[in-house]
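Chapter review: from sequence to fold.
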Amino acid sequence: MVQFDDIGFGGGSRASFASNPEKSKGRLVAERESPTRTAFQRDRDRIVHSTAFRRLKHKTQVFFSHEDDHYRTRLTHTIEVAQIARALARAFRLDEDLAEAIALVHDFGHTPFGHTGEDVLGELMAEYGGFDHNAHALKVVTELEHRYAEFDGLNLTWESLEGLVKHNGPLLDESGKPFGDKPLPRAIETYNQKNDLKLANYASLEAQVAAIADDIAYNTHDIDDGLRAGLLSFDLLKEVELVGEQLAIVDRLYPDLDQTRRGHETTRRVMTAMVEDVIHMTGENLRLLNPQSVDDIYNVGQTIVSFSSVMNTREKELKRFMFANMYRHENVLRVRAQAEDIIRDLFDRYMQTPSEMRGEWADRVTKLDRQSLAYRVSDFLAGMTDNFAHAEHCRLFDQTPELR
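The token string follows.
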């Protein structure tokens, strides 16, 4: 068992390399500070009270919510990520509120119907620069949320925005060029011209714990949902080293455990093993690199919050297993194909008859060129819940897939 004292962190005052709300780089639109909340607490609260946050409850994680009340949605996944992120932040004496805020906002850019919607929208928007859910999340919190009198978006601090955009790593290399053959997403490039997020630097440790918390959360809760759906079995899971090891412990300790508890007991132990591995490995990284400030974290040139090499190998094996046996299961792919049809049909209809979007989305659409219209349609579709997208298809078309 990893103890915080063993790694020299956990408890006490904020670490010197943690983000400090009193030294925040501020907000794009200057505001008077709150007398009762730190800047990062205020960010978290704005995220929780946003429309985009509420919509997560009706957005798919893996299984469509109408199939079973107990499957994870984007909202329940997000809450689980936030819990793990906060626990990791506490272990390293980081700013827990900033870690929680980044975890809570990290999925704001996801479309209806999970990754299916994102993939289809990416194809449909290919000639206009594609679609990237991180870039759309930034657009949501800087433009599309209309709650405040003095600005569009949520006017989050620089630290929350850079964590949202860069929690999976830098977007530019040292020369300022995007990695690979993909250009920088348009929404990120546009915003970065107004408020430089230092896209070639690594993100804060608060953002890094949110990123790895995301991996831990979906790796474990997708096992739970897969067992509930009957797509996974304990016999299959025994083949995966990370899960099989914990399952063997559960079976040895509780040989007569019912199958429901057997699954929960196994997944919670898998989660604990991953969290404790991150705490140990990150502690070792911090000892080795010895950062003295948050700027040292930005400029260190590597991810600090990480799995050990052994756990990294096991985690990748688990992901491969989940893709082969659950995410690519014929039942999932059948419903995914139906969801693709819904997104394609709606995109085509709105492009042909943009007034069908109704409300503020249909304002002045006749004055938009085709590219601007495509961005408007993409934003409208990306913000939909599963339920609303399905209802819109029912309204506009004679036949709509039932997604089963």
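Two observations follow directly from the output. The domain at 35-194 is CATH 1.10.3210.10 (Hypothetical protein af1432). Residues 1-8 have pLDDT under 50 and may be disordered.
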